[in-house]
Specification:
The protein is mainly α. It has a domain of about 55 residues. The protein is built from three helices and two strands. It starts with 7 loop residues before the first helix and ends with a helix. This is ATP-sulfurylase PUA-like domain-containing protein.
Amino acid sequence: MPTIELGPIDVQWLQVLSEGWATPLPGFMRERQYLQTLHFGQLLDLKEEDCVSWRTANSFKDDDTKDPWQLNEPINQSIPIVLPITEEQRKNITI
C-alpha cells in the first residue's frame, strides 16, 4: 500500500479534520475548494471535480459534477486546509 510521509503541521491538520473541526470538509481540500477559499474566502461546494470556471462565484455551481455533500449556502472558509504532495505522490496513491 502506498504511503505519504506527513510532517508535524500535516499531522495537526489531519487531527483537525478527523475531529470534525473543519466540517463540512470530509478531508484535505481538493484544488476546487482550495481555489474557492483563496478567491472568495468561502466554500461554495464540495464537488470533487478539479476544473473550475473563473468568471463568477456562481459559476462553481453551474456544472454537472458530483456533489456528495451539497451545501445550502456558502460557508466561510478563509484558511486552506491542504496536504502538499507532488504530482508523482498523487499518482502513486490514486486508485
